[in-house]
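Posted in: Structural Biology > Protein-Ligand Complexes

Title: Requesting predicted complex, NAP in pocket

I'd be grateful if someone could produce the 3D structure tokens for the following input. Sequence and ligand are given below.
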Amino acid sequence: MDRLSGGTRHTAVIEETLKRRSGGILLAYVTSTAPPFASGPFGNTPLPRGWHGIGGVMHQWEHGAGDDLFPPNHLRHDMTFQVDGKVVLITGANRGIGRVILNEAIARGAAKVYTAVRRLESVDELVQQHGDRVVPVALDLSKPETIEAAADTASDVDLVVNNAGVLKNATPLADDVVDCWLYESNINVVGLMRMAKAFAPVLKANGGGAFVQLNSVASMQSFTDFCTYAASKAASYLYTQALRDELSQQETAVVSVHPGPIDTDMAHDAGLQDMTEPPQVVADAIFDALAEGRFHAFPDKMARQTAEAYGGYIDAVVGDASLPAKA
Ligand SMILES: NC(=O)c1ccc[n+]([C@@H]2O[C@H](COP(=O)([O-])OP(=O)(O)OC[C@H]3O[C@@H](n4cnc5c(N)ncnc54)[C@H](OP(=O)(O)O)[C@@H]3O)[C@@H](O)[C@H]2O)c1
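-- Reply #1 --
Done. Output follows.
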């Protein structure tokens, strides 16, 4: 690696990260607060914010602001979260994966779980089962006012799990492909944005906490029979990456969950019932990723195969500080 100067306490992190991420191409991250100057291929000019490849060229960072030379936030190693004793909110907690996440949160010692659902009566059984540790809240991801009202109600929340999502079967040239996309993206992508905007200030006020987003293996691979769903999960994954960086500034951990086919109504509707694994693997993967400070969670066999194939890309481009460094 070439030389870094600037004398910050983060230099060791940057050096370690550059070695691990670069794979032979030197990368440098430029902050927006006080642009460093690079000699060599760029001349002595300020660089735009972001990652820059500086392959094999001797370079130097000169930086007057010391600690302002800060590595990207997603390179932090200390964003772990334990659910024991915490307050949780889960969208779509009435059935499928969300219901199992709720049960696992309770089993791991969560003090209270807000079940954010469209129909309050759909969690009657869960309230009977868990008593006042389960608090139903009305929330529809397609209705912004319900999301804002839920954020007001759940003002003591430490962990938000945006689990609710929808899938339509639509091939690329289907008559209804645009309608399917508009419906799914409104809930799977815009709904996520609304959740993040409404709950980020609440999490910040409560000390940081964590935000978990249910993405999919379809975030990385499209499927002909539900291509608009895959496009929406790719969009939500990219948004989740940016959210991780932004929320790390307020000490909020973010986890992106990427299940393969899981045994719920959604997988059955998509015709995937013969290849499913139980929802419990997703719940376990979420709380393990939170406890270990990992950004990605790949819960099941198909997910792990995807992660294996995709791992080099994560390592070199997306970044997940907790993934083991390559030899
Ligand atoms: N199952 C899989 O194979 C699989 C794989 C990868 C990722 N995922 C993701 O995992 C998450 C959960 O999936 P699942 O399999 O549990 O799905 P599911 O069984 O179909 O359940 C969907 C949940 O989302 C809720 N929901 C739907 N539209 C909503 C809206 N507009 N506002 C609020 N809630 C809404 C549903 O509530 P209602 O009961 O009111 O309809 C239900 O609780 C989704 O984000 C999905 O994309 C699933």
